[in-house]
Amino acid sequence: MKTRHLLHLNTFCMLALAAVLAGCQPGKEKETTQDTKDSIPATSTGFKPNPQRVAEVEVKTLSIGSVAPPFSLPDVTGKFYTLDDFKDAKVLVMIFTCNHCPTAQAYEDRIIKFTDEYKDKGVSVVGIMPNSTMGLLPEECGYTDLNDSYEEMIIRHRDMKYNFPYLYDGDTQSMAIAYGPVATPHAYVFDADRKLAYIGRLDNIEKPGKANAEDLRAAVDAVLAGKPVANPENKTFGCSVKWGWKDQYNKKVEEQWKAKPVAIEKVKEAQIKDIVKNPTDKLRLINLWATWCAPCVAEYPDLVELQRWYGARNFEFVSLSADKPENSEKALNFLKKAHSPVQNYLYDGEDNYKLIEAVDPKWNGALPYTLLVEPGGKIVYSYQGPVDLLELKRAIVEHPLMGRYY
After folding, report:
1. Which of 19, 355, 366, 395 is 20 to 30 Å apart from 75, CA to CA?
2. What DSSP letter does each residue of 317-386 carry, written as one string?
3. pTM for the complete prediction?
4. % of the chain residues with pLDDT over 90
5. Which residues, at least 6 apart from 108, have a Cβ–Cβ distance to it below 8 Å?
6. Apex CA 364: angle with CA 358 and CA 368, to 5°?
7. Beta-strand runs (E) in 201-292
């Protein structure tokens, strides 16, 4: 992977050593590169999502022959869609899918290709994101750079160049409850009368490049030809739908995370060099921060959450405080408030220039400073100043040690 040393000649650089020595970090925004421009979410659509706790109900999957229940849901532009918007389609294909699920990601290209190849045959395709963010745990996001929020649906739709409407059902899950998808992706095929003719998988091979949505194609071809679908029902495989009544379990997991012990260890220059050398078999994220650094304090909770996202895989987050040794208790108190039960270190020295050399000679000294280090010490990502979180997530999840899934 290409090393990314994004050390710009901005305010952070110009006042770098002065900031470390004076105990003050400039609060200027980092310079925006093309990479960060590409990761900035689209502007507001006017629709404001409001995920709500949903009362638990028995969810039943639609049976073959059922008429499509009505719905009214926004897409990623804020436009609301109903069944009437597809009234001219000979066949309506609905696919319940989402951002975070690796299986859903594995089928994205197939859905896009299918949509393109069938658009002139009178077939309309619509994607529906059925999950409640209240039911989605950070620990379930180990293969993704995006969660299932409406804002991040906008990013997914843009970056994957979806050629079909992508609808949001994450507030009350009314459509998901009415249709009854069990996993993502889950395909539904409705005929011209909007009666369900097929339900289930797109094909039987999850790995991209090994199948081409054969089951979905066969079903749609049959409906277009006015014939019954040979196999109208197939099981589907993927991530379970995240229901809004599962929030109590999520709260329990959150409490367990917050109950983990938090400690801090003082380290000298030699130990810091070993930390950066990364003698583990994991991808190591290292963040240099201090309690007196406002940008550090602001971004730190987001970095801790990355441990929850990716920590079950080949990843670990390590924090290194540049607070003075006599202020270790203050640093520890902050870490406790930030619920940081990871390897937390504090530089036990007075010479900040030795700290700089121990961490990375290319670092000019300003905080925060973040590095992503391979086993053996190769720095594959570094940034001085508050990171672009999406850019950092992508650097993590797209690294060969992690991989999106395939």
Report:
1. 395
2. EEEEE-S-GGGHHHHHHHHHHTT--SEEEEE--S-HHHHHHHH-TT--S-S-EEEEE-TTS-EEEEEESS
3. 0.87
4. 86
5. 97, 160, 162
6. 85
7. 239-240, 265-267, 283-289
**Residue 141 near residue 100, CB atoms below 8 Å:** yes
84 Cβ contact list (under 8 Å, min separation 6): none
Residues 194-211 pLDDT 10s: 999 999 999 999 999 999
Tokens 């202020």 sit on residue: 327
Identity of the residue numbered 138: P
**What tokens were used for 137?**
């745990």
Q: How many residues does the chain have?
A: 406
> φ, ψ for residue 220 (rounded to 5)?
-65, -40
Question: In whole angstroms, what is the distance from residue 32 CA to residue 117 CA?
Answer: 38
CA-closest candidate to residue 96, choices 116, 73, 118: 73
To which H or E segment does residue 179 belong?
A: helix 174-179
The amino acid sitting at 239 is: C
